[in-house]
Automatic annotation (TrEMBL):
Name under which the protein is recorded: LacI family transcriptional regulator
SUPFAM superfamilies (UniProt xref): Periplasmic binding protein-like I
Keyword Oxidoreductase belongs to the record: no
InterPro entries in the cross-refs: Peripla_BP_I, SBP_2_dom
Single GO MF descriptor: carbohydrate binding
The keyword Signal belongs to this UniProt entry's keyword annotation: yes
Protein location: Cell envelope
Domain Periplasmic binding protein: from-to ranges: 40-294
Highest taxon above the source species: Bacteria
Amino acid sequence: MLSGLLVLGAMGACGGENEAGSNGGNADDGKITMGFAQVGAESGWRTANTKSIQEAAAAAGIDLKFSDAQQKQENQIKAIRSYIAQKVDVIAFSPVVESGWDTVLKEAKDAKIPVILTDRAVDSKDTSLYKTFIGSDFVLEGKKAGEWLVKEYQGKTDTVNIVELQGTTGSAPANDRKAGFGDVIKADPKFKVIASQTGDFTRAKGKEVMEAFLKANPKIDVLYAHNDDMGLGAIEAIEAAGKKPGVDIKIITVDAVKDGMTALAAGKINFIVECSPLLGPQLMDLAKKVVKGETVEQRVLTEETTFTPEQAKAALPDRKY
Ligand code: GYE
């Protein structure tokens, strides 16, 4: 997937003094040091993503400095600044929201430290601020969710009342999954999104917001949740309200982590759009290339599928996360 054009004389792994001690970047041990600023630990997806990154770094012999921003942009910016101060060889991060990164990315660029975006995008106009972006096409994921719904209600004319649990406000997956879904369902006026609110990608918030949705809206036909965790929280709220998830209210989610797939196999979720968290190995390959100064593709897409209950049953025994 990657084109590997070697740029001679471009940035190497070494240069400048090493203030971070023997483990720091630019050490003479030939080992690459990566600073990774993770979003947090908000979901099953994130847990699997963190594990993939840590395991892949160890397997690739890359020295990983890892930080958890607890879903706060200011914490991520602090972590990136500390990686710059430590003169790591490469910085990778999954931006919690899309906006507001130009200043810190410029600081990394000025320090000649290459940056790789993983999982989520930034809206910076200046694409020279990062080397590459590896992750899913979230608009496509939203479209797949919408397409399933259109098929499911084909030939029916009654209004379909939809509630939506959005991911973290301002994050690329929340923006794009909403847009992709909206784009597909707007072709048919019977689909009505009657409520749409953030559940911050967590189970607890998903449950809380779904409780409010249920109280305010007597007729909900469909729940579209931007990730499995919020869907799983919502299932608890639906059951507590005496309704059957998957039957009284149809549920579509995104991710396909094990807990989501288990609920899908049990018929409590009706359809899941896969979003793979296993970005570690590709990230480490890209890191080695950019540290060597090789040119890499600006966008590396993750391959993904979708699951029905039957497909979830078949896939579950081998599911890694
Ligand atoms: O879908 C969600 C997580 O950015 C793709 O973040 C990721 C999303 C994922 O919290 O579960």
